[in-house]
Amino acid sequence: MIEMMNVSCRLLCLALGGLMLLPSATAGAQSAAPSGRGLLLEEAIAMALERGPATRSATRTRDAARFRDASFNARLLPQLSVTGEAPTYSRAIVPVVQPDGSTRFVAQQQRQSSVGLQMAQRLPLTGGDLFISSGLTNVNVLGQQELRLWRSTPLQLGVRQQIFRLNTQAWDNKEQDVRADAAEQQFLEARESISQQTAALYFDLFAAQTALANALGNANVNDTLFTLNKGRYEVGRIGENDLLQSELAVLRSQNAVQSARLDEQRAAAALRLQLGYPSSAPLVLQVSNTVPEISVDTALAMREALQNAAQLRDADLQMIQQNRRVAEARRNTGFGATVSASVGFNQTAENFNEAYKSPLQSQQFAVGVEMPLVQWGARKAQIQAAVADRERVETDVRVLRERRALDARFAALELEQAGRQLITAAKADTVGAKRFEVTRNRYTIGRIDISNLYIAQVEKDQALEAYVRALRGYWDAYYRVRRLTLYDFERGARIR
């Protein structure tokens, strides 16, 4: 672990000491963190992943994808349905063929009703349809010669199959498998994005709290120096210019406190929203004085990014869809046929009891043919367009994979660089604080002028800001490489 005890302890004391002066930090307030201490980064992230609004949105998105996948798989199972037709009535003049072959047009009134039960199953290997059905129909002819007929179909087994056409069911299965996998990866990436966003907001608040505490400290120091300089001016030890410069520093520090206080309130509100944190509870942070020392293998990062990235799952789906369009253009624009066949039993009678007695066998077989003769090159052009689109997508996917691998590689390098920069920034902050303390003491005893004092104060503030930025940058790089690779380099395992 990278130790930064001196700098971090000084920062914590500075931030907590400044927070004691904030109006929101009441004496009787209880922290939401365990044992009354401040909120750690890991706790903030866990809180955001458990009850934050972004997590709820990501979870609902994943749940919707799972439900769609379950619905798709359920449709592959046998489907049982009931169909029916309520009594319908018609009154019209209809043609009636006579025994001698002539046709008479007579007025007819008719009432009809039917009910049917069917079980259907898609055939994934061939893309056809298989069904078993049973039905009953009742027809009443009204008028002077009233007639009632029953027609029953106790059992009918049928199949319908396209030949030389695209098997849409097989392609649908391929697409759905990739969609379901992509949805799960997108959920994992969303959680890592939430972690990265939470870490950024966490350190935004920490930076704002540190800046406020530092501004309050500068204001106290400048006010003390101004009081000291007024006494020196009265006895003639300094000129009016130095006194005015000291007063100007006091005014600037007061404005800095007001701006820092507003920034702290804004950052706290943003973090509360991210965490789903109660507005009535005080929000005090406890920044750890250590960060994980991780050596990220760039080759491993690139490999895991290519295997786990949800964006590449979407790219795989695009390739499947383009291959499907090419196959569809080739198979659905040329010769094709549809074969349908059914066997079963049926019967008709004037009363219901006779409708199911001694049923007669029924068969049906049909072949439908579609063969384009003149297309004026339309089929060829459609195939070429589909192939061109597929080649375009292939190029885009290849570039996307290369870019994703490069993003993962440089994210790993940036994490290592962020660790080195954090060490340097920590040392610089320690040096800047010590130099300002020495400079202030020397100014107090009159060994240096006031300009050197304020230069040391500005450099101390800049070093402090640089350290907070470096700390924020390290954790941002840490969660960025996790999001890009979906791999936990600290544990050496994929994120699940």
Automatic annotation (TrEMBL):
Location relative to the cell: Cell outer membrane
Record keyword Transmembrane present: yes
Entry GO terms, CC: cell outer membrane; efflux pump complex
UniProt keyword Signal, yes or no: yes
Domain of life where this protein originates: Bacteria
MF annotations from Gene Ontology: efflux transmembrane transporter activity; porin activity
InterPro entries: TolC-like (IPR051906)
Cross-referenced Gene3D superfamilies: Outer membrane efflux proteins (OEP) (1.20.1600.10)
Keywords linked to the UniProt accession: Cell outer membrane, Membrane, Signal, Transmembrane, Transmembrane beta strand
Stated name of the protein: TolC family protein
Organism encoding this protein: Gemmatimonas aurantiaca
Lineage: Bacteria, Pseudomonadati, Gemmatimonadota, Gemmatimonadia, Gemmatimonadales
